[in-house]
């Protein structure tokens, strides 16, 4: 059996960003599932650096074209290239004569927007980024949001805010709080990234704005780091970024084998939504219950008890228990436990971890108690839940992204004929 020729491939991405990390993971998944032999060129800190790239002697490049500097630097290159980035409303904005794999910005926003509609909201806002060439994808998401709002004849409330830095942090947060106070309530807010959503959750906490009763919030990226840094579990649209990486690798692999793909353009839809507490809006409730829920969502994993919640609300424990039964049909304790369980399952879904650490992090008094709660509520142990969720993640995908995957598994000739036809 012939050993496949090893190709030298440059990946021009910034793995500080979750989107870029997921693209790289998708490329790695493609390589591990095929006989493709690539020697990958990446900077040691996984960040792209353009100086000298024009002199790099290799066989192919996959690059992030959301950064206009990357597109400009690679314009004179004659090395086989596949570009990755966001979709554009105007087809003239796509790079010419370059195969391009895009995240579908319109579908990302549409999925988040319609999720908020399904939650019963009637006011909608978008937290974006300042206009800049390197933020073109954010402006495309603004266009999608405004188009959806126009379709539904509602006012598109868009706020770009500032790019945050240490000197401007306090000023940026105060401006976010002022914007939040100006919005009609209740309101559903789509943030163009999880990082922006996390900032807004912090601003809500500082301003005493209840999430999701007054502001229901959803981000984009499903970034586990952003989720870990928020008090309230954050909903997020899951981009099909790994699918994009696999698709880009497949395109480049075919180019290296002499297949002409031309200026092929592939839009990859989102994979779904990770729905957590931040967007689970419900109809207005008794103010004592709303205030209690706001406190519980922030501190459930810190070992709080019913008495502490009642103290925060300013009423007796018995009164709070009565309000909870009337409004929610459950107890304060059960609501605290539900959020601890939600936090624990979220951690377990990420991979191997120490169960005692998970129990402590999520506010359970012991790993044994967490085990009993899992058995009672989910019918399985924490470890069994983790194994089942990891198996589901590694198995066939469900939804729009799976259809893209099936197309990639087709015969190569048919695949490219379908792209060009």
TrEMBL record:
Residues 290-388 form the HTH araC/xylS-type domain. SUPFAM superfamilies: Homeodomain-like (SSF46689), Periplasmic binding protein-like I (SSF53822). GO terms for molecular function: DNA-binding transcription factor activity; transcription cis-regulatory region binding. Signal peptide: none annotated. The lineage of its organism: Bacteria, Pseudomonadati, Pseudomonadota, Betaproteobacteria, Burkholderiales. InterPro entries: Homeodomain-like_sf (IPR009057), HTH_AraC (IPR018060), LacI/GalR-like_sensor (IPR046335), Peripla_BP_I (IPR028082), XylR_PBP1 (IPR054031). It comes from the Bacteria. Residues 388-408 are annotated as: Disordered. Keywords: DNA-binding, Transcription, Transcription regulation. Gene3D superfamilies: 3.40.50.2300, Homeodomain-like. This is DNA-binding transcriptional regulator.
């Amino acid at each position: 059996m012939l050993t496949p020729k090893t190709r030298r491939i440059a990946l021009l991405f910034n793995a500080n960003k979750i989107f870029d990390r997921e693209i790289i993971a998708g490329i790695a998944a493609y390589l591990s599932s095929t006989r493709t032999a690539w020697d990958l060129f990446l900077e040691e800190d996984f960040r792209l650096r353009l100086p000298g790239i024009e002199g790099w002697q290799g066989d192919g490049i996959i690059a992030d074209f959301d950064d206009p500097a990357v597109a400009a630097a690679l314009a004179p290159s004659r090395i086989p290239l596949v570009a990755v980035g966001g979709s554009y409303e105007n087809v003239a904005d796509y790079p010419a004569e370059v195969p391009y794999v895009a995240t579908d910005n319109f579908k990302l926003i549409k999925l988040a927007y319609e999720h908020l509609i399904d939650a019963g909201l009637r006011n909608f806002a978008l937290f974006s980024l300042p206009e800049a060439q390197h933020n073109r994808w954010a402006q495309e998401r603004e266009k999608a949001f405004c188009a959806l709002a126009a379709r539904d004849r509602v006012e598109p409330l868009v706020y770009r805010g500032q790019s945050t830095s240490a000197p401007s942090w306090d000023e940026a947060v105060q401006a976010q709080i002022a914007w939040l106070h100006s919005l009609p309530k209740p309101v559903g807010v789509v943030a163009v990234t999880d990082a922006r959503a996390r900032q807004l959750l912090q601003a809500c906490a500082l301003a005493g704005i209840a999430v999701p009763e007054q502001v229901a919030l959803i981000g984009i990226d499903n970034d586990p780091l952003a989720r870990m840094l928020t008090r309230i579990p954050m909903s997020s649209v899951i981009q099909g970024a790994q699918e994009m990486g696999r698709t880009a690798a497949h395109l480049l692999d075919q180019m290296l084998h002499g297949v002409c793909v031309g200026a092929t353009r592939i839009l990859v839809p989102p994979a779904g939504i990770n729905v957590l507490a931040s967007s689970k809006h419900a109809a207005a409730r008794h103010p004592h219950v709303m205030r209690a829920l706001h406190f519980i969502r922030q501190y459930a994993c810190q070992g709080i008890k019913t008495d502490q919640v009642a103290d925060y609300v300013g009423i007796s424990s018995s009164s709070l228990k009565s309000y909870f039964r009337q409004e929610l049909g459950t107890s304060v304790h059960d609501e605290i436990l539900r959020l601890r369980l939600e936090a624990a399952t979220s951690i377990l879904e990420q991979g191997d971890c120490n169960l005692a650490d998970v129990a402590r992090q999520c506010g359970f008094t012991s790993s044994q108690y967490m085990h009993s709660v899992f058995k009672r509520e989910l019918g399985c142990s924490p470890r069994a839940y983790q194994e089942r969720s990891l198996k589901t993640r590694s198995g066939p995908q469900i939804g729009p992204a799976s259809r893209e995957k099936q197309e990639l598994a087709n015969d190569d000739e048919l695949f490219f004929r379908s792209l060009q036809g």
